[in-house]
Amino acid sequence: MLAAGSSSRMGRPKATLTTGPAGRTFVGAILETLVAAGVADVRVVVAPGQGGFTEAGVANPDPSAGMLSSVQCGLRAFRQQPDAVLVWPVDHPLVKVESLAAMIAAYRESNPPVVVPTFQGRRGHPVLFAARLIPELLGADPSRGAREVVHAHDDRLELATNDPGVIEDIDTPEDYARLFGSKLPPLRGDA
Predict the structure, then answer these.
(1) How far apart are CA 29 and CA 111, in angstroms?
(2) CA 117, CA 103: separation in Å to the nearest integer?
(3) What is the pLDDT of residues 1-46, one digit of tens each?
(4) How far apart are CA 184 and CA 173, in angstroms?
């Protein structure tokens, strides 16, 4: 899970935002979905000094290098190479368990190099990468992003879902208000 970004447009870390006034944190919502879909080994990549994620937390020493640098930090943190990896930005907390389960099942059935969920023709997140692409991800230029690895594989699977959560990117206070029907909760210490 990628949670090391500066969240400059949101004005506060997205990882600790909640899915509505009384909801779970974005990290908590994603972790619940991963567990419910049977994903056993998770890494939450954060900026230096962020914590609270126990053994799943991995610090990216330079998040300004780009999202792929966080992917690379997360990949290096696995003790054993996984069968596949899901790259999941923290600002997509509304993905349904059924969508994630369908992605995993499609991967197990046909073994494509990449599985990208779509909604109404738009590509979304999380993206599943086969283990055989881990060296490509680790060797890619962080300034160019993982998208380059995805698009290098014409045999990727773009899996249609009925889940708008795969494309709901919550980057701004306006996105938050539109999706959850309320303004951002005040920061601690705000009046």
Answers:
(1) 27
(2) 7
(3) 999 988 888 988 888 898 877 788 999 999 999 999 999 899 999 9
(4) 6
Q: How far, in whole angstroms, is CA 65 from its chain's centroid?
A: 17
- Write the DSSP symbol of residue 187: P
**Residue 108 CA: distances (Å) to CA of 83, 118, 130:** 10, 18, 10
> d(Cα 108, Cα 119) in Å, to the nearest integer?
21
* CA 24/CA 134 separation, integer angstroms: 31
Q: What are the angstrom distances between the C-alpha of 57 and each of 1, 28, 64?
A: 9, 13, 18
Cis peptide before 126 (omega within 30 of 0): yes
- For the chain, which residues make up each domain, given as ranges? 2-168
Q: Which amino acid is at 158?
A: E
Stated pTM of the model: 0.92
Could you give the count of Cα atoms lying within 13 Å of 153 in the half-sphere of its Cβ? 21
**Domain 2-168 annotated CATH 3.40.190.10:** no
Q: What is the CA radius of gyration of the chain?
A: 16
46 and 2 Cβ atoms separated by less than 8 Å:
no
Two structure tokens written together for 146: 């993982």
**Contact (CB, 8 A) for 6 and 15:** no
